Amino acid sequence: MRSRLASLFYENAQATPEKLAIWCDGKTATYEEMADLVSRYSNLLLSQGAVYGDHIAIPMNNSIESVALFFSAADLGICVVPLNPSLPLEAIKAAMEAGDIKHVIARKAFYSDCEKSGGLNIPGFKICLDQEYPGTVPFAKIDDMSSERPTIDHDVDGSESLILTMTSGSTGTPKPIDISQDNKYDRSMAHIRVYKITKEDRIIAATPLYHSLAERLVILPLILGATSILLPRFTPAIWLKCVEEQKPTFTIAVSAQLAQILELLKRPDAPQINSFRSIVSSSALLEASVKYELIDLLHCEFHEMYGASEVSTVTDICFQEAKDKQNSVGLPFDEAKIKILRDESESDFDTDCAPGEVGEIAVKSKLQCKGYYKQEAMMQAAMFGDYFRTGDLGYLDEDGYLYFAGRKKELIITGAINVYPHDIDVIIGRLPEVEECAAFSYPDDRLGEVVALAVVPKEDHEINLRALRTYCARNLADFQQPHKVFVVDKLPKNTMGKLQRMAILDYVRSAGLDD
Amino acid sequence: MENVKDFIIDYIQKEYTIPDDIDIINLNFVEEGYVDSLGLVQFIYTIEDEFGISFSDDDLQNPDIKVVGKLIAIVESKMEAGKQ
């Protein structure tokens, strides 16, 4: 038995060899060329001693070769552990340890950094992607490999781990989310169905490939026979240029990117974009004003989704269709069920919130990952029966639509009163001089925690602290009043552009703003 | 200690090889996405560590630090000033 993911891709290569499979940074591969590359990559891995079940770590950039690796790994029953190349070396090594890494594929700079800090101890091979480096196999050897799909001596039944996605837990220990080949297949199929994706679609991925969103957006088109457009790096200008040239029809983008893209689209010299039939916003709630302006400028269906890497997409909403649910993140996918859990301290028996009541969003989904790799206890702790606790707060309305109300762990508890920082962000964010802002928890001897606020002023604007405080006094409850206000140049965000609320305190301290 | 130019060009290419047809010296590596704006601060700290120099707040506001050739010149002049 061979890998279903890899076989679907090879079948598409047989059926439409001349069709464009993938574009990335000006380079292209037809399905035939991509199949050759995947086979050569598999043969390279086999020639170096990779076997079924091995784990390969790769500080991963967005490239056609990275995408080929996913399909080679699927075909051989190997697991890829994509890592963020900009992580400090120590964090990369911790992730490698957590992921039981046998082999490494990396750029020269990575091996050279490793050597400066005591070397890299792994049992298997090391491949160097660019140039040559002592003790590594040059990737260029791939040119000597056969372009025949290799035969394998072990069944690949779909239960194999395909990707370990590293996220860091609250303690900083890596939390490897284990996604099997079947998970990837089922998730792709669910998205194809919900977003009516066809072979004719050109799907643009603009986030890093070491996150599940971009992995989904490159694997999905290639098993469907569509075209993948992979942005090498994201800046709004690079995105816009690529969209103008490559004319993608579908994407799932993170909301922070969409907000930046909107700024460019509003300029008088901005190009007309009308290739999209559908755009989905993900990762964090999109500001309503941004949403409506984008709908006007992009002339396409506009969706918002809610999900988590562990359970994939949970809900979706199309704003042009659900006119009376504009603040919702939508209805669950067929594969998912949602429960809103009341705070456990209140009752062990009556755990489901009533419609309209805010609680923790818990999800039971056929798209759920295999678990956290070798961290069963951590996964168990995240479960409520067979529901995964997302750590997000929200509520359902009478019609079953989900509404997002912030992250549970970002909750500020000041004098035993729960403060949802998102509520404060929304109010302060309405000030014309504020580019973005975030309320966060600040330690306090008296109240345990107090509300603090980080504000990024708009370009050429200044924050008048006195006026801000007056505005807060007028528009926020007493327990919501920021005790400290920090004017900052930007907010800490992860590579997906998601606000790292828990990192703001460190950020203002390291910037010397908190004396 | 590495040569300033090699150090800076290697750092920018940690994730992506800059294509041969690009004029590296005039490349704005932030606008072109090779280093993002948060990463720029880390990059500057790394340069400070490597070459034993320091950037003032004004330096950090100077748009020239995002252009390869200009950044090299700024670092070299700071090193020169440090020797005197």
Structure description:
The complex is a heterodimer of chains A (515) and B (84). By secondary structure, chain A is an alpha/beta fold. Among the domains of chain A are: 29-168, Rossmann fold (3-Layer(aba) Sandwich); 411-510, 2-Layer Sandwich (GMP Synthetase, Chain A, domain 3), CATH 3.30.300.30. Chain A has 14 helices and 27 strands. Chain A is globular and about 70 Å long. The N and C termini of chain A lie far apart (64 Å). The mean pLDDT of chain A is 90. With 84 residues, chain B is mostly helical. Chain B has one domain (4-83): ACP-like (Non-ribosomal Peptide Synthetase Peptidyl Carrier Protein, Chain A, Orthogonal Bundle), CATH 1.10.1200. Chain B has 4 helices and no strands. Chain B has helices at 4-12, 37-51, 57-61, 68-83. Chain B is globular. Chain A binds chain B through residues 26, 59, 61, 85-86, 107, 109-110, 130, 232-235, 237-238, 490, 492-493, and chain B through 10-11, 13-17, 19, 31-34, 37-39.
Key traits:
heterodimer, A: 515 residues, alpha/beta, Rossmann fold, GMP Synthetase, Chain A, domain 3, nine-stranded mixed beta sheet, B: 84 residues, mainly alpha, Non-ribosomal Peptide Synthetase Peptidyl Carrier Protein, Chain A, 0% strand, globular
> The CATH topology of chain B, please?
Non-ribosomal Peptide Synthetase Peptidyl Carrier Protein, Chain A
Structural shape of chain B: globular
* Structural classification of chain B: mainly alpha
How many β strands of chain A by DSSP?
A: 27
Largest interface: A-B, 18 and 15 residues
